[in-house]
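Could you please consider the sequence and fold following this short note?
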Amino acid sequence: MRHRQILDKLAARGLVQALDEELARWVREQMAYSVSSYAELERAVIPPILVRWRCLLDADDASPATKHVAWVALATLLHKYGFRDDAITSMALTAVDELNRHVVLSDAFERQSPAIKSLLRSKPTPLARRPRLPRNVTFLRPGDVLSIELSGRFHAAYVRDLRGINEFPVIEFYTGTFAQPPTPAQLESRDAARDHGRARFGVVGMSCLPDPAGQVRAIAAQHRQAPRGADPLPGRGLWQLTDILNLQRDLRRLFGDADGESRGHVE
C-alpha cells in the first residue's frame, strides 16, 4: 500500500491537494533551517498544520464524513513526509472504521483498510531532501473581503492586490477581533489594524475559496472600501511577505495571543 493509493481512495481531490501542497511548502521551509534532529523538525512542522486544519476538523458545520476523510488524509500525508503523531494517527484509524461503518467510500477502501491502517501505524521514512516547491497560485481577487479564523477568533482582511500572475494576494487586516465571521456592515469605515501598511501581508499559499481547511472564508466580493489608515512610510516597505501557515504567527503578533491579551475586545 502506497500513500497515493490511500489518498486517491478518499475521493477528496481538492482537500488532499491543498493539504499536500501546504505540507510540501512548510516542510521545505522548516528543512532549510538548522535542526539537530528529525524529531525537532517534526515538532516544528505538525502544530501549525494542525492549528490551521482544526478549523475544519472541529467545525460544527462540517459533516462527520468530511472530518473523517480529513483525518485520514492528514495522517497519510504526514507519514508521506516522514512524520507521525500518535494522536493524529489514532484519530485517523478511528476515521477509517467510521468511513467503513457508514459506507462513505468504495468497497476497495474497505477491503484495503487493514493495509491502510498498517501503513499509518508503521514508522515513516524521514525525507532525504527537501520537497519540491509547489507552484504559487491564487483565485482571490482585489476587493475580496475575507474572514480568517485562528483558535476560535475571527479576523477580517481586505484583498488589496495580486502579485505576479495571480501568484498570491496582498491583504490588509481591519482592526478588531470577532467571535464569529464578521459581516460587511461591521467593517464599514473601519480602520486598518495598524497604520502605515503594517497590517498588510503578501500571503503565499492562500489559494482557494472555499478554503478546504475552513480557515479562510469569503465575506464579500468587489468591496470598494479598504481599511482606513495612513499609507506605508517611504523606505519602510509596502507589505510583509508571509505564507498561509506563518500568517498564524503574524496574526498573534498583530492582534495578541489567542490565549493571552488581545488588542481590544472581541466583538
